[in-house]
Amino acid sequence: MAFRGRKGPSLSLAIAVGAALALGSGTSLAQDEEKPYEIRDGKVDQGTYNGFRRYHASCHTCHGPDGLGSSYAPSLVDSLKTMSYEDFAEVVINGRENLAAGQEKVMPGFGMVNDVAMYIDDIYGYLQARADGVLGRGRPERF
Ligand code: HEC
User: Fold this and answer.
1) GO molecular-function annotation terms (predicted)?
2) Does residue 140 sit within a domain?
3) Is residue 31 part of a domain?
4) Is residue 88 lining ligand 1, measured as CB closer than 6 Å?
5) Containing structural domain, residue 104
6) Does some domain include residue 119?
7) Contact criterion met (CB below 8 Å) for 122 and 48
8) Ligand 1 in contact with 123 (CB < 6 A)?
9) Which of 62, 106, 124 to mutate to test ligand 1, by most ligand atoms within 8 A of the CB atom?
10) Is the pLDDT of residue 45 over 90?
11) What's the N-to-C CA distance of the chain in angstroms?
12) What does the longest C-alpha to C-alpha distance in the chain come to?
């Protein structure tokens, strides 16, 4: 992916929101071995289930069902194979525009959209489980 410019005020918003989310989430994403989701017998925890719901409310129109991508926006299942939580949160909060080479693709910023901003960790957890290959397509069951 191309380098993306960072804007001062929105970046500090991202840091503020990110710090608040990290404090509130109760799980430390900084530890590599700790996954941002829990799956037992094919069933997911409440947060991952919520992430599925939020993803399909706000993201799937562009990024495709189950995170698989579309002709307009990339597969987030693929993106999260390499993308860090910090980079993910930064793009979701601030958005990104790709106007290169005649393309006009816009990733809207969701920093002001509470239904997304408050649940970034859940959306991330759901997509990371998909990226790790431990969660299939469709609506998961909760344990
Ligand atoms: C209006 C369409 C649209 C919606 C809705 C949308 N996105 Fe995007 N998103 C895009 C486009 C287009 C790109 C690629 C931008 C680029 O090429 O730089 C993108 C890029 C991204 C990236 C960076 C991927 C990478 O590999 O660099 C992430 C992460 C992302 N979106 C997450 C989300 C999440 C989470 C949601 C829902 C909360 C969401 N997007 C909703 C259009 C959208």
Assistant:
1) electron transfer activity; heme binding; metal ion binding
2) no
3) no
4) yes
5) 47-134
6) yes
7) yes
8) yes
9) 62
10) yes
11) 37
12) 47
- Assign residue 115 the CATH number of its domain: 1.10.760.10
Res 104: pLDDT: 83
| Residue 76 CB–ligand 1 contact under 6 Å | yes
Stronger pLDDT, 105 or 38, i.e. the higher one = 38
Tokens 């380098």 — which residue?
3
Please report the atom of ligand 1 found closest to the CA of residue 120.
Answer: 35
- The tokens of 92 are what? 């979701």
Name the pTM for this structure.
Answer: 0.82
| Within-domain flag for 18 | no
pLDDT band of residue 113 (cuts 50, 70, 90) is: very high
Contact 80, 71 (CB under 8 A): no
Please count the structural domains in the chain.
1
- Mean pLDDT across the stretch 29-35? 64
